[in-house]
Specification:
Number of strands: 5
Largest sheet: 5 strands, mixed
Shape: globular
Structural class: alpha+beta
Radius of gyration: 15 Å
Order of helices and strands: HHEHEEEE
Helix content: 10-25%
């Protein structure tokens, strides 16, 4: 029988590893947080699998003034059901000038041979600052 507290702790660790690695530009380590067929749904895109997700995230241009990024995740609601789970979290992003944008993560997770991984992560943007250094993101 699985240990619910241990599963929730492992899932919180997964959320943190995704965030820390993404903020530091370590896309290979960030995308390793996804299952082999995992999907990252964001801004009208839905690449599948770590390699496709990494290619999608590294495409396009980035404002060269953007040198500082920190995602802050709060209030993760985690529900575990055997070898699958769901999580919903709020996030706020700070960049060079301060608060930049915020939204929610809606996650479906799967227990794999390598531990918990994202089966599907949906990113929604609720707010973006006027002076954001990120491209304009569609808010809901």
């Amino acid at each position: 029988m699985a240990d619910l507290a241990a599963d929730r702790d492992a899932i919180r660790d997964l959320l943190a590893r995704y965030t820390y690695n993404g903020d530091r530009g370590r896309l290979d380590a960030m995308t390793a947080c996804f299952a082999a067929d995992g999907v990252l749904e964001y801004l009208g895109k839905a690449p599948q699998g770590p390699a496709e997700i990494e290619a999608s995230l590294s495409s396009g241009t980035r404002d060269p003034r953007l040198t500082f990024i920190r995602h802050h995740i709060t209030n993760p609601l985690i529900a575990v059901d055997g070898d699958t789970a769901t999580a919903r979290s709020y996030f706020t992003v700070h960049s060079n000038f301060g608060p930049d944008h915020s939204g929610t993560y809606d996650d479906r997770l799967a227990r794999t041979a390598d531990g918990w991984r994202f089966a599907h992560r949906r990113v929604r943007i609720d707010w973006q600052a006027e002076g954001s250094l990120f491209a304009k993101m569609t808010s809901r």
